[in-house]
Specification:
Layout: H1 2-34, E1 36-42, E2 44-52, E3 55-64, E4 67-76, H2 85-102, E5 112-117, H3 119-127, H4 129-144, E6 149-155, H5 158-173, E7 179-184, E8 188-193, E9 207-212, E10 215-225, H6 229-243, E11 249-252, E12 260-264, H7 277-281, E13 295-300, H8 304-312, E14 337-341, H9 343-350, E15 358-359, H10 360-371, H11 375-379, H12 391-405, E16 413-416, E17 419-420, E18 423-424, H13 427-434, E19 443-448, H14 452-489
Parallel strand pairs: 2-5, 5-6, 7-14, 11-13, 14-16
Antiparallel strand pairs: 1-19, 2-3, 3-4, 7-8, 8-10, 9-10, 12-13, 15-16, 17-18
Helix pairs in contact: 1-14, 2-4, 3-4, 5-13, 8-12, 9-12, 10-12
Length: 490
């Protein structure tokens, strides 16, 4: 009997050990199963279409691992206002089809698209409401026939464009202090910056709150319609033609000596920025066109001083405030470092071949040197192209804005940028940063330390061990009970 009890005790211990080992193995494999690596196969997608005055560009943004990546391509290179209505739908449709190919098929229908027209359409709305609505009808028809979720299809306010561009620049620069923004397109100019902390008067209609990297900024923002490169040039030419008494031969100080350009009257006078109520009421002067078709010959004279004075005289001369913008309205002062973006200003500044960022005086000196070149000297440069002729005018205008309007001096620096960290700088990035929560869902692949076969095989084996342990304990417990009963009866 004693031997039987010893055997029961010994086998019970074995049973308990089996159960404990089985349980330990179960918990270990459950823990190992919980260890996993998550790989982002693709991020969250969003699409923007920037319908600017000189072209329409589509950008595909992918937000992955906390960073934005973008791919850009051109839908059309004339601008909505200059496109033929018959071809406009096809141009936009082809662009959307191309975007569909570049985004994972399963999330096309979950990807938001933001289509915004900018200054060119803002100008058309003023001059021709019917044409404006016809263009938008075609655009919306194309958007609604795509597979994307249309989140925005409208003409963007200039203040929003400025704020989004500011956010784009400052998200890429990652400076301790924010950079002010100067942006020049073909039709408008945008400004956005933090006013000086000592500023007491802030025009509420031009203050925009922007949240960037969880920090709040109150910005002065303004968009100046008709002061983009192309429309400003048009107003400048109208001014010097008027100053000449509408002579057939016109002295032009902002273009190189030896350069001649024939301008037809319909290239100048038909613009809302030159002639009409808007030009008179908002810009301060409407240039009255002569009846009939006329041709004017511009004769360049390579004169920086006269060019600067012509530019300066295009603005209000009797501003009662030290800080006046282009519309004779007070704007706050800024101590900011500035970043200048946009095709209207970037390429003309790049031609000056200056270090970047540049101080204001150095920029002026280089511009003065450029404006002194005659046509032969200018055209002999290997970088010369069809746009180089206007670089003196654009750079003088840019210097005027920085020095005369913003009151920047040689303590301030300006950086001219087309890309920052290989990212094209555009208001569209600022918009996407503001809409991260609306982007399509990401797709993840989960990699575990244990495969399903290994895990379930180990769990099954462990359960078998536990069951064996329980059977052993139950069997020998029953044997012990039987032995105890026999011993009592004897």
């Amino acid at each position: 009997m004693k031997q039987t009890l010893d055997l029961v005790k010994k086998q019970t211990i074995f049973g308990v050990v089996f159960i404990l080992v089985g349980l330990v193995v179960v918990f270990v494999f459950i823990y190992l199963r919980s260890q996993k690596n998550t790989f982002e196969l693709h991020g969250r997608f969003g699409i923007t279409i920037d319908a600017g005055g000189s072209g329409t560009r589509l950008s595909i943004y992918e937000y992955k691992k906390g960073k934005l990546h973008n791919e850009n391509f051109i839908c059309e290179n004339k601008g909505l206002t200059n496109s033929q209505l018959l071809s406009l739908y096809d141009n936009i449709h082809k662009c959307l089809v191309e975007a569909e190919k570049r985004i994972p098929l399963l999330i096309n229908s979950k990807t938001p698209i933001y289509f915004a027209a900018t200054a060119g359409m803002r100008l058309l709305k003023i001059s021709n409401e019917t044409a404006y609505q016809n263009i938008w009808n075609i655009v919306r028809h194309a958007l609604n026939n795509s597979s994307f979720i249309v989140k925005l299809n409208e003409t963007l306010l200039g203040s929003k464009e400025a704020a989004y561009s500011w956010a784009s620049v400052n998200s890429l620069l990652d400076r301790e202090k924010s950079s002010g923004l100067f942006e020049m397109g073909s039709t408008s100019v945008q400004l956005a910056f933090e006013p000086r902390s000592s500023e007491t008067f802030l025009p509420s209609s031009h203050i925009e709150n922007v949240i960037l990297k969880k920090k709040s900024y109150n910005l002065y923002v303004y968009s100046f319609l008709c002061f983009g490169k192309d429309e400003f040039r048009r107003r400048y030419i109208a001014r010097i033609i008027k100053k000449s008494g509408y002579s057939s031969n016109v002295k032009d100080p902002c273009h190189p000596l030896g350069y001649k350009k024939v301008i037809a009257s319909n290239e100048i006078w038909n613009s809302t920025c030159v002639n009409g109520l808007y030009a008179q009421r908002v810009l301060g002067e409407s240039f009255v066109k002569k009846n009939g078709n006329h041709f004017y010959v511009l004769h360049g004279s390579s004169n920086f001083t006269d060019c600067f004075n012509e530019v300066k005289n295009m603005f209000y001369a009797n501003c009662s405030d030290k800080y006046c913008d282009m519309s004779n309205v007070h704007h706050p002062a800024s101590d900011a470092f500035f970043t200048a973006i946009g095709g209207g200003v970037y390429f003309s500044s790049k031609y000056l071949n200056l270090s970047n960022p540049v101080r204001i005086q150095a920029y002026k000196n280089a511009t003065e040197n450029l404006c002194s070149l005659n046509y032969t000297q200018l055209s002999s440069n290997k970088e010369f192209n069809n746009y180089t002729i206007d670089y003196c005018l654009v750079d003088v205008f840019t210097y005027f804005i920085f020095h005369e309007l913003l009151k920047l001096d040689d303590s301030n620096k300006v950086m001219f940028a087309n890309k920052i960290d290989n990212n094209v700088v555009s208001w569209t990035m600022g918009l996407i940063l503001n809409k991260i929560h609306e982007l399509s869902p990401a797709n993840h692949y989960i990699s575990r330390r244990l495969s399903n076969v290994t895990f379930y095989s180990a769990i099954t084996a462990s359960l078998v061990v536990i069951i064996i342990g329980l059977i052993v304990i139950c069997y020998y417990y029953k044997l012990r009970k039987t032995s105890y009963t026999l011993e009592t009866q004897s």
